[in-house]
Structure formats: structure tokens, C-alpha cells
Write a structure and sequence with these properties.
This protein is about 35% helix and about 25% strand. Helix 4 packs across helix 6. The chain is built from 14 helices and 19 strands. The protein has a 10-stranded mixed β-sheet, with helices on both faces. A 5-stranded parallel β-sheet has the order 2-1-3-4-5, sandwiched between helices. Strands 9-10 form a two-stranded antiparallel ribbon. It starts with a strand and ends in a 6-residue tail after the last helix. The chain is of the alpha/beta class. Bound molecules: cytidine-5'-triphosphate (CTP). The site of cytidine-5'-triphosphate has 15 residues, from helix 12 and strand 16.
């Protein structure tokens, strides 16, 4: 694959040199293009040495008059990392003042953008709108990580890790890539129902959509999937071994009896925390006076898995209404997970019942990746991509 690597001006520009090396290692030919502000941070000669090609920088070099057209036509993919707020705006609005933005307009292939900037700039309405435009155009955005930024603030805006960018490149080149072959993923999905009497139960708003999207995405990527599902109104994905359960206690039983072959466990289900201590054998009749129910705690399946997980990868979920990051970090440690996927519930467009979701992926080791609102299938693929990263890095070592 012939890849144009656009580098724009930001502290993270130095990381693009290693990205160029990794792309070449993956068998690609790399044509580096540096904007003038990128040249303030890194020297073209670094990229020339790594890629074995002349680095393109200016629209006004004698040979550059039609070079952007040539380069656009002779390459298969355009990747910009880091992408500044400025280049996102230029691309979104079709401005063509520099070599890279002119090249962008002349380019017809897939585009991947890995933004990096200060948190306020990242969260600014203007940047949000530009990203929306670029996404609608079909471009892939590799979201920045949350962390300490060079400017001294904490928040979203740090350039995504190079392996996340490489993963986006691989999936753009081959969306049908079966990168989970050999893994057996046990996924729990949906709510549980805890009986009050034979006709009534306590449950929650989980629809199972996120867990089912994960199961489908994992199947598409070549994994064997065991889906332990609470009561939902969704068709089980074809190819998954699906076990239907109703109560938390049935879910625990199904998870433990199917744990052995699993190499990865994703606990997406919204399991009850409390259940009626003594469900009535017969329907409770109304008596015109208040009824009180005694609730007893339900054992935490994920925490139990955290104790017996062995070298399996363990991914938990955290549904939160507030202090999302703090609670997710706490759950990660408490339940001995490799990753916790946190989502905000109780807001439109995210969490239970919605077709879209917005999440924070919190990794053991402290890395946090934010994925803004996207369809649940897209969110599922991001979660699986992160699981593959955990597998490739130190994820299994403990
Ligand atoms: N979980 C579980 N068994 C339970 C309760 C929760 O396995 N009895 C798992 C969920 O599947 C999820 C994670 O624990 O992966 C977090 O669930 P969540 O409801 O967000 O949090 P809790 O741990 O129940 O804590 P709290 O309700 O206090 O937020």
C-alpha cells in the first residue's frame, strides 16, 4: 500500500517519525508530507532517512506546481498524524492554501486523521463541527487519548498511541480483517430480571444492543463467540453460541460453566445488584396498603471472575450517571480487569436503549481513550481493537 503520511505542527509530530517506521515495517511505502509548522518541530531529513524518499513540504518549490496532483494520484491512502485543529478546519472547509490541504482536495482514496491538540481546542464547538463534517465524508478519526498534555492540562487531546493508528490503517485497508481468529470471547449482554413473584420482576433499562453488537463484530473478526444473554428482544447473532438466562444467578452459572474455553471475557450485561430476598411463590394480591420488599445483595460476577481469571483478558463495563472516569478507574482496580468501558447513562444518545453510545476506555496502567458518540457497532469495533492492543502489549502479563 502506498501511504501519504501528513505531519502537521504539534508537539506530537516527533511521534510521527516512529509511525513512519512502523508503517514501513508493515510493508507499506510511505511518502511523508510536512506542513511548514511541522518543520518547526521535526526535521524533514528524519523522515527522508526513514522512508527513503524526498519529503514534501511546500507548495512553492519549483517542482511542486503539479506535484500535489501526482502524489495524490499515485498513493492509496492519506494518513495525517498528528492532525492539528487547523488542518481539520482546512480539510473540512476545502481550503487549499498549503501543500497538504491541496493534496487532500486532489486525493480520492481513504483518509485517516489522528488529531492532537489542547483539550479546550479539541472540545471547542468549531473543532467538533469540523470533525462531524469530516466523519460524514467517510474519513476515519482516530480519537486522541485522555491524559496529561504538553501544555500542562489534563484532558482529551493527546495523540492516540501509534498502535491504535496502525490498527485504523489495517482496518481501513481491509475492513474484513479477521484479527480475532483463535480467540474465544465470552460476552454477557442485556439486563437480568429478579422475580418478586411469578409475574413481576425487578430489572433495568438495558436493551442488550451493545453486547449484541460486540458479539456480531467479534464474529465478523473471526472470533468464536459465547453470548450469555439476559432477556432482550434481539435476534442472537448467527454463529454465536447463545445461552439465554433470566436472573443474575442464572447468568453467573452460565458464565462459570462456559468460562473454560474463553480467552477473553467481556462483561457488558447490566446485572442486578439487589434482588427480592424471598420471591413469593404465588402472585402477591393487592391489599390497599403499602407493600415493602426486602432486597438482598447479588454477588458480583465480574469481581468473582477477577479472582479466577487466570491469563484471560477481562473487560468490564461501568454504567455511570456522574464522575464517569473516577468510578471506572475504581471498578477496574476493584474487579481486577484489564479494561473498563465506561458509558454515561441517563443522557440521550448514550447508554441503555440507545442505538448509539459514547464511551471512555480505561486501561490498566492508566491510559484512557475517549470515543465520541457513534453507532454501537462502531463502538464495538473500537472496543475490540483495544482488546487486540491489550493482547499485543503487556495486557496478559501480571
Ligand atoms: N457486574 C457483575 N455482577 C453484578 C453487578 C455488576 O458482573 N452483580 C458487572 C457488570 O457486568 C459490569 C460491571 O460489573 O461489567 C459494572 O457494573 P455497574 O452496574 O456499572 O457497577 P457496579 O459494580 O454494580 O457498581 P454500582 O452499581 O455501585 O455503580
Amino acid at each position: 500500500m502506498r501511504i501519504i503520511l501528513g505531519v502537521t505542527g504539534g508537539i506530537a509530530a516527533y511521534k510521527a517519525a516512529d509511525l513512519a517506521r512502523l508503517l514501513i515495517r508493515d510493508g507499506h511505502e510511505v511518502q511523508a508530507v510536512l506542513t511548514p509548522s511541522a518543520e518547526e518541530f521535526v526535521r524533514p531529513v528524519t523522515f527522508a532517512a526513514l522512508t527513503g524518499r524526498k519529503v514534501l513540504t511546500s507548495l512553492f518549490e519549483p517542482s511542486a506546481a503539479i506535484e500535489h496532483i501526482d502524489v495524490a494520484q499515485s498513493n492509496d491512502l492519506l494518513l495525517v498524524a498528528p492532525a492539528t485543529a487547523d488542518i481539520l478546519a482546512e480539510f473540512a472547509h476545502g481550503l487549499a492554501g498549503g501543500f497538504l490541504s491541496t493534496l487532500y482536495l486532489a486525493f480520492r482514496g481513504p483518509v485517516i486523521l489522528a488529531p492532537a491538540m489542547n483539550t479546550n481546542m479539541w472540545e471547542h464547538e468549531a473543532t467538533r463541527t469540523n470533525l462531524e463534517t469530516l466523519r460524514k465524508r467517510g474519513h476515519v478519526i482516530v480519537e486522541p487519548a485522555v491524559g496529561m498534555l504538553a501544555c500542562g492540562t489534563f484532558g482529551a487531546g493527546r495523540l492516540a498511541e501509534n498502535d491504535a493508528i496502525l490498527e485504523a490503517v489495517r482496518r481501513t485497508i481491509d475492513p474484513a480483517v479477521r484479527d480475532l481468529e483463535g480467540e474465544t470471547i465470552l460476552i454477557t449482554a442485556g439486563p437480568t430480571q429478579e422475580p418478586i413473584d411469578p409475574v413481576r420482576f425487578i430489572s433495568n433499562r438495558s436493551s442488550g444492543k451493545m453486547g449484541y453488537a460486540l458479539a456480531q463484530a467479534a464474529l465478523d473478526r473471526g472470533a468464536k463467540v459465547i453470548l450469555v444473554s439476559g432477556p432482550v428482544s434481539l435476534d442472537p447473532p448467527r454463529g454465536a453460541e447463545t445461552i439465554h438466562v433470566r436472573t443474575a444467578s442464572e447468568m453467573r452459572g452460565a458464565v462459570l460453566s462456559h468460562l473454560k474455553p474463553a480467552t477473553v471475557v467481556v462483561k457488558c450485561a447490566a446485572v442486578a445488584d439487589f434482588r427480592p430476598a424471598a420471591p413469593a411463590k404465588q402472585k402477591i394480591k393487592k391489599q390497599g396498603k403499602p407493600v415493602s420488599l426486602e432486597l438482598e445483595p447479588v454477588g458480583d460476577i465480574l469481581a468473582e471472575l477477577g479472582r479466577i481469571r487466570g491469563d484471560r483478558l477481562l473487560v468490564g463495563f461501568a454504567a455511570e450517571t456522574n464522575d464517569v472516569l473516577e468510578y471506572a478507574q475504581w471498578k477496574l482496580n476493584e474487579k481486577n480487569c484489564d479494561m473498563v468501558v465506561a458509558n454515561r447513562v441517563g443522557v440521550e444518545g448514550s447508554g441503555f436503549e440507545s442505538d448509539t453510545n459514547e464511551i471512555l476506555m480505561v486501561m490498566r496502567g492508566g491510559e484512557v481513550v475517549e470515543v465520541p458518540r457513534a453507532p454501537k457497532r462502531e463502538i464495538a469495533d473500537r472496543i475490540l481493537g483495544q482488546i487486540i492492543r491489550l493482547r499485543q502489549t503487556a495486557g496478559v502479563a501480571r
